[in-house]
Amino acid sequence: MLVHNKWRIIRLLTLVGLSLLLVLLILFIVVMSRTFTLKENLGLQFAQWENTTIISADIIFPNVFSSSLVKHEVVGNYSHLFTVLGTDPELVPYMLLAHIDVVPANEVDGWEAPPFSAKELNGFIYGRGTIDNKQCVMGILQAVEYLLERGYVPRRGFYIGLGHDEEVYGYNGAVNIAKVLKSGGVKLQYILDEGLAVMDGIITGLNGPAALIGVSEKGQATVKLSASTRLGHSSMPPKENSIGILAAAITRLEESPMPRLFGYGPEQSTFEHLAHKFQFPLRFMMSNLWLFNPLLSRVMERRPDMNAFVRTTTAVTMFNSGVKVNVLPSHAEAFVNLRIHPAQTLQEVLDLIKSTISDNRVKLELVDGFDSLPISSYDEQSFGYQIIKKTLLDMFPQVTVAPSICIGNTDSRHYMDLTQDIYRFNPTWLRPGEPERIHGINERMSVQNYEEIVLFYFQLIQESDIRILPPSHTGQHEL
Ligand SMILES: CCCCCCCC/C=C\CCCCCCCC(=O)N[C@@H](Cc1c[nH]c2ccccc12)C(=O)O
Ligand SMILES: [Zn+2]
Ligand SMILES: [Zn+2]
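Above: the input record for the complex with LXDHLVL2. Below: its predicted structure, written as tokens.
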């Protein structure tokens, strides 16, 4: 009898123990697979900054700066590297980039609100950097803050790099952050940096908005041109002096734009992806670029922002000469900044400049230059591209996502040894008249778009936790 009871108690205890284990297992699965949503009004941190002097980041983002999951390092004196630990060490981490520096701004140029006030006017936050690139700095940190606040623990680890000198090439910020990661043997699944944006009403003839993701960026050349002639009294001038010689060379460069190469780089893919959103006959033309390239290029080149996709662009950005009104200038120098189309090399561009100027009195020196950057993957198996695309389409189903080429250069090029897949995209909506505000006057960000940016990163971080992409059901993109 006693033995019988003993077995009953053991059986009961085993049953209770097993049930408890089962409940714990179910709880664990529920917690691990939970996707956090962000439905409430985000109560903008941007707007809080108005009329304040210094608020330190750890007050605005208390969880980011106190969580045991997040390591914060200052790199190169002013840049920031955040390492966010993931629970699964098998999953290759990814990296989000943005930059905290801005180009100068002066209220007297015609700003509607002081450029460093973050003043809100009619639903827009005004200020230098609001669309380049503080919206991403704040958007990323705010998203991580909200996630941590909700008890989120990432499965896939990630890094956040906030450079402090992107506008002057990133040699101290991005370069040193990349060094820190490289010395730790870090490899990245993908990188998302600033770049292109959601174009709404910007691409002529396109129905609906298009999110252009930069899978490459144009190359660059900064060339110094100079001419020297005899110093002397302006009352006895020679037929030509250094200013005239250099000015004529520059005129020749401006009058002979680089060749049209539209359709020979990633922009071909851009327009193939967008083709179905154009009306006939543009739709037919975009789907048959091999035939219509010459015609389309001639139309596109009329608009500077479109011309950037057609060719290597040439911009004379500095010209210095002369010391006094009555002294012949012995020396004149100019700087030309070219953005190189992927179908051309730096060397080909330099050779063309030389033959166009065709004047041995003009000295040509390459100050800085590099070819266009490698093309990141954007097929159905491309993890980073598909995660960015899914995040975008979940938020904005009306948007067409297409690979493209970033026409400016970004900090991400310093991270090329860490990953093969770099994407340049800001979850920022650009409408007609807005691209001009980048580095221009009245740079601004709508309150609504800022909230969407926070939500974009909030969702992207959670989407990136997936181990592998689900098998794709779609074949080719629609044409
Ligand atoms: C067919 C579609 C039409 C679309 C119209 C396009 C509208 C423009 C939209 C977005 C603008 C793209 C800006 C990309 C960000 C580039 C960042 C930037 O401005 N960088 C500077 C500084 C810089 C950084 N690294 C280097 C290296 C060498 C020279 C300069 C820089 C820049 O590129 O000058
Ligand atoms: Zn920028
Ligand atoms: Zn910029």
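Notes for the reader.
The longest helix spans residues 2-32.
Residues 124 and 447 are 6 Å apart (CA to CA).
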